[in-house]
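Exercise 7. Predict the joint structure of the components listed below.
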Amino acid sequence: MPLSVSDPTWYPIASSEDLPFRHVYQGQLLGRELAVWRADDGNVNAWENRCLHRGVRLSIGINEGQELKCQYHGWRYANRSAGCTYIPAHPADAPARRIENRKYPVREAYGLIWSAANDDLPFTGFPGAEGGDWFALRPMPVNARPGDVVAGLAGLAPDDQPADVMQGLSVRLGNIVYFVQPVDADRAVIRGLLAGKPADPIATLRHYNEGLTKLRDRLEKAAARKPVPEKLSPIFEKVSADLASMPDIAIPRGATLPVVVKRKWQNADGVVSFELADRDGRHLPTFQPGAHIDLHLPNGLVRQYSLTNGPGDLMSYVIGVKQENASKGGSKVLVESVRAGDVMAISEPRNNFPLRRDAARTVLIAGGIGITPLLSMSRFLDQSRLPYELHYFTRSGESAAFSSELTALHGRVERHVGLARDAIRARVSQALGPYEFAHHVYICGPGAMLEMVQEVASGLGWPDEAVHFEYFQNDKIIDQSSAFDIELARSAMTLHVPAGKTILETMRDAGLTVPSSCEQGACGTCLTTVIEGEVDHQDVYLNKTEKASNSCMMTCVSRAKSGRLVLDI
Amino acid sequence: MTITLYDFELSGNCYKLRLMMNILNLAYEVVPVDFFPGREHKSDWFLRLNPFGQLPVLQDDGLTLSDSGAILAYLARKYDASGLWFPKDAAVTAEILRWHAIADDITATASAARLALGYDYDFDIDKTQKGAHRIFRIIDEHLWFGEKQGRDWLCSPAHPTTADIACFPYVMLSEEGGISRQDYPALRRWTDRVRRVPGFTVMSGIFPAGPAR
Ligand code: FES
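Solution:
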């Protein structure tokens, strides 16, 4: 039977021990080259062996434990999802989260790593595999046609005990099963499994290695006399445009995914944590350090929470929620009524707070619950062995969240407890120091603290581009004095927005149902596409580029500079 | 007294010495020799240093030394206070010298293929590539059984020796000679280990490895 590039059979492609931590194994199956690597969580990834950027082999990349980094240009891909998490020098310092490398199905069983060209067949092992204790022999690469290798192995059987040639290029010879990995039309690897662990493993391994070496030499001599078969040429279907294109700015379109609350626990005084996971145990979408998700609450509100996860840590998202006594609904509902086992809807992660990884020095400043995005950033910097300093200001020791996670970090982590306003200011100033080229600071915390740090930084000569912050609230005074018309393109309606009334309110008054949450231009829920007209942005959600593009706006606070706006509603 | 290395940046044999001196934390000066395209290693002034017309040449303490393997042994004996890189033990010395000879075989095959493909040298490409694969198969098997027995390096001591430095560069540069290392997983894992030796330094075509866990 000729080999086919779309053969869905599962074949072994490596031994378990070929994948030590922090190594990238180079493999091949049916003409397709694979980069195979074990992440620190034990998960095995089998990917197409090329970086999406320039096709450089990922098998010479760096396995950072949770991400694989391309040696040449520094593109990074996450464990499990193969999603690209970082593109150096990209305008937003962050790729759209949909850029994914091609993955192949993969399983680890019986001391071998198995893969297939596609997902058409479920993994079933081999007849009699279950319950057995299998011992992997040294693999033997052979420059010969896979079919000839199978015949050669079958020929090793004594006359009175003929070999049992099985499905998937495998041969059973007594207590050994040999699998032939079809590397290409003219190359194969013999992978043997011995039933039971031998008394003297080394002597046994040497014995079989010697036998297979002789067989290989015979097969290669015979192959040299035959015409060279044509190589398999897998078609590298382009990764779909949807997955591989880089949208200018990804704007969430309200798509949600269901997650189950796996765990809820009191993280610190006044902070409750939730662990959210896929209901079927699959991985969640790739995210970047600093990213947040929208969480849809039981009372219909939508609230934003930063992910605290480290790189490639996609089996669940962990968020921290501040327990506010006077809270009007948001976190109160979450803390009081949501229980482990509940199902909730979340958005895909979105990043308004991208982390630069080309900085000479990174300073992270957190106040209270603002630790959440900065914990994620610290974990990324930690994994990449990049230098950073994290300053965490809390009112009391008991209110410091994620303590054990912070203790596990290797960077400089300083906790500042119970300082007065002036003392915080002095400490921040000391931590920042005078600005130098390629230094960056990231701040997350209460509004007053954000402003104070920005002020201190600018006083020390830090330019705006080096000071990154994320608001969870819009403290600006909104100017509602303008009046203008809005044309709702999809609803075929023209409305007048008078001074003192928001676009959102005007639309609601006209009977339209439009989503909103914070109603202060901080969360992004009311984001709307603008087709025509000039927007007067007053939110803190969109970044400068997004605002300048004039292609979207927040209907809860933004107004028009032109007489008329055409909206995609 | 400064050490002077007559060096060509893209030569794996010169890189062996830069690597060793970096690991031993030695200061040295470099005299660039235009091996390609200038063929300066065959010029009169160079032949006076080394009549064999080969790089690298190293000068130290009034001595002029040639042959990368010999110089590795010299540097380790003279400057490695730990005595680990070229141990005095007779059996280990024999083992290391055996691998220095294998390093020369790698140069004659993998490096020759690279010179033929990238530097216009008139070598039989097919023959040199086949020769490299024959050697890589043996090294892979040696390293594979080594791992099984708890040995991470080419020789028996529990630490790297000059044998690992001598064999490393042209294994790493083999792709430039059209020699894939896909069939040699144990050899690939060993190159990760060499790249994690403290003091490791890179050359064009040889990348660093990420930190181990
Ligand atoms: S509702 Fe939050 S930004 Fe408009």
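Discussion. The first helix of chain B runs from residue 12 to 23.
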